[in-house]
Specification:
481 residues, 68% helix
C-alpha cells in the first residue's frame, strides 16, 4: 500500500475532518431545541429555575455553535482542493442545496442567534423567545439542505448527463429536495441529535446533583434529559427502520454488507446476526449468533422476503456497469464495500444508542419520587460518563453510511477513485492532513475546556423576575453572553 497515495490520503482527510465537524452538528441542532423548550417553559410559568437552565445550556449551545461554524468552512474548501474531478462532475447539482444552506438557512440561523444573544434586555419575553425558535428552525433547514446534497450521492435524482458524459446537470431541484433518501435520513438525524443533547443535559445535571448543588434546577433538568432521551430513541428506531427500507430499495449492497450476507437468503435464512466471526479476508462466515427472519423483516417488512446477497449483487452490478467493473479489476467483490467496517459500524451504531436509552430508563427508576434508597454515587458517574454514547452512535452511523456506499462516490455514476484531484500529489495532501489534525486537536481541547467550564459553573443566581412586575412581556435585564 502506497502511504502517499493521493486517493487514500484525500479519503482519510475528508473522513477525519467531516467526522470532527460532526462532533458539533448534533449538539447545535439538539441543544438549540433544548434551550428553546426551557425558555418556553420559563415564559409560560415565570419560574426562575427555567431561566437559569435556559442561560446555562444556552451558553453551551453558543460555544458549540461557534466551533461548528469554524470547522464547517473547511469542508467546502476540500471539494476544490482534493476532489476537483468530483466537483466538476456534480457541481451543477450538488452546488444548489449547498448554496441554499449557506445563503438562506445559515444566515437565517445566524441572524436570529444574534438577536437572541443581544436581545435579552431589549426585546419582550415573547419576542425574544421567538428568536431562539427561529434560530433552531434555521439550523433544521441547514441540516436538511446538507442531507439532501448527501442523499443525491446515495440516490441520484433530478439530473441529466451532459452531452459529453462527464458532468451531471440539474433538471429538477424539487426532486433533489424530495429525494426519498433525504426524507428518510432527515428525521433519523434530528432524533439522534436530540439524543446527544439530552445526554449532555443529563451529564451536566448529574455532575451538580452528585455534589448537592442547584438541586431545584438540576433535578427537573435531569428528568427532562432522561425522558427526552427515551422519546428521541423511539424516534431513532422508527426513522431508522424507514431509512433501512429506502436503503434496500436504492442501495441493496449496503444492506447486504451491513449483515455480511454473501448469498441471497429468504425467510428464516434471512437472519440478523448479533455477533459474527469471519475469515481473515472477510469473504465468508465462521460462526455467528443469529435471529431468524429479522433481516428479512428489516429489509422488506415481510418475514418471508428475500434479501439479495453480496455475491449476487456483485454479479448484477458487473453486468449493469461493465466499464466500471473493468476499471475496478473485474475480479472478486469489486462493488462491495469493506465488509468488516460496515458490519461492525452498523452494530455499534445501534449498540451505543440502545445503551444510552437503557441508562436513562435506569435513571428514571432510581430517581423516581417514591424511591426508598438514595441514588448511589456510581449511578451519577455512569450518567456523567455516558454523555458521548449518542454522539458515538451518530459518528459510526455516518461511517456506515459513507463507507457502505463504496466504491462509489456517486452511486451508479462515479467511482470514488475518479473523483480525486488528478494534479494534487500525495505529499501535499499529507501535509494538509497533518496540519488539520493538529489544529483540530487543539480546537477540541479548547471546545471541551470551554463547555466543561460553563457546565461546572452551573446556573447563575437570578432573582425572581416577577417580583417587581407581573407583565410577562416585560424584558428581563441580564448580562450579555
Amino acid at each position: 500500500m502506497d502511504l502517499l497515495d493521493p486517493l487514500l490520503l484525500a479519503r482519510w482527510q475528508f473522513g477525519l475532518t467531516t467526522l470532527y465537524h460532526y462532533l458539533f452538528v448534533p449538539l447545535t441542532i439538539g441543544m438549540g431545541l433544548v434551550v428553546a423548550i426551557f425558555q418556553t417553559v420559563w415564559v409560560r410559568t415565570g419560574q426562575p429555575k427555567w431561566l437559569q437552565l435556559t442561560r446555562l445550556f444556552g451558553t453551551i449551545f453558543l460555544i458549540n455553535f461557534a466551533m461548528g461554524v469554524v470547522t464547517g468552512i473547511v469542508q467546502e474548501f476540500q471539494f476544490g482542493m482534493n476532489w476537483s474531478s468530483y466537483s466538476r462532475f456534480v457541481g451543477d447539482v450538488f452546488g444548489a442545496p449547498l448554496a441554499f444552506e449557506g445563503l438562506l438557512a445559515f444566515f437565517f440561523e445566524a441572524t436570529f442567534i444574534g438577536l437572541w444573544i443581544f436581545g435579552w434586555d431589549r426585546l419582550s419575553r415573547k419576542l425574544h423567545l421567538a428568536t431562539i425558535w427561529m434560530a433552531w428552525i434555521g439550523a433544521t433547514l441547514s441540516a436538511y439542505f446538507i442531507l439532501a446534497a448527501n442523499a443525491w450521492m446515495q440516490n441520484p435524482v433530478g439530473y441529466t448527463m451532459a452531452t459529453d458524459g462527464h458532468r451531471a446537470e440539474l433538471t429538477d431541484f424539487g426532486a433533489v429536495l424530495t429525494n426519498r433518501v433525504a426524507l428518510a435520513t432527515f428525521p433519523h438525524t434530528m432524533f439522534s441529535a436530540f439524543m446527544f443533547a439530552a445526554a449532555v443535559v443529563i451529564a451536566v445535571a448529574a455532575w451538580h446533583l452528585v455534589r448537592h448543588q442547584h438541586a431545584e434546577a438540576m433535578l427537573p433538568a435531569l428528568r427532562f434529559g432522561m425522558w427526552g432521551m427515551l422519546v428521541a430513541f423511539v424516534g431513532v428506531i422508527v426513522s431508522g427502520d424507514l431509512l433501512g427500507l429506502q436503503m434496500v430499495a436504492t442501495q441493496p449492497m449496503k444492506m447486504a454488507a451491513a449483515e455480511a450476507l454473501y448469498d441471497t437468503a429468504c425467510g428464516p435464512a434471512a437472519s440478523f446476526s448479533l455477533f459474527s466471526l469471519g475469515t481473515p479476508d472477510g469473504t465468508s462466515e465462521i460462526w455467528s449468533l443469529r435471529v431468524p427472519y429479522l433481516l428479512a423483516f428489516l429489509s422488506e417488512h415481510d418475514f418471508t422476503a428475500c434479501v439479495e446477497g453480496i455475491n449476487d449483487l456483485n454479479a448484477q452490478y458487473t453486468a449493469q456497469w461493465p466499464e466500471f467493473a473493468q476499471q475496478l479489476g473485474g475480479e472478486g467483490l469489486d462493488f462491495a464495500p469493506t465488509i468488516w467496517v460496515t458490519y461492525w459500524a452498523f452494530r455499534w451504531m445501534m449498540g451505543f444508542g440502545a445503551l444510552a436509552a437503557v441508562i436513562s430508563v435506569v435513571g428514571l427508576w432510581i430517581t423516581r419520587r417514591k424511591a426508598t434508597r438514595p441514588v448511589p454515587r456510581w449511578a451519577w458517574r455512569v450518567a456523567i460518563w455516558s454523555a458521548p454514547l449518542p454522539l458515538l452512535g451518530s459518528l459510526v452511523g455516518w461511517v456506515f453510511t459513507e463507507m457502505g456506499r463504496q466504491p462509489w462516490i456517486v452511486f451508479g455514476l462515479m467511482l470514488t477513485e475518479d473523483g480525486v484531484s488528478p494534479s494534487v500529489p500525495g505529499w501535499t495532501v499529507a501535509i494538509s492532513l497533518v496540519a488539520f489534525t493538529a489544529i483540530y486537536a487543539a480546537l477540541a481541547v479548547v471546545e471541551f475546556g470551554l463547555i466543561k467550564k460553563a457546565a461546572q459553573k452551573g446556573p447563575d443566581p437570578i432573582p425572581d423576575p416577577d417580583a417587581a412586575s407581573d407583565d410577562t412581556d416585560t424584558p428581563v435585564p441580564t448580562t450579555v453572553y
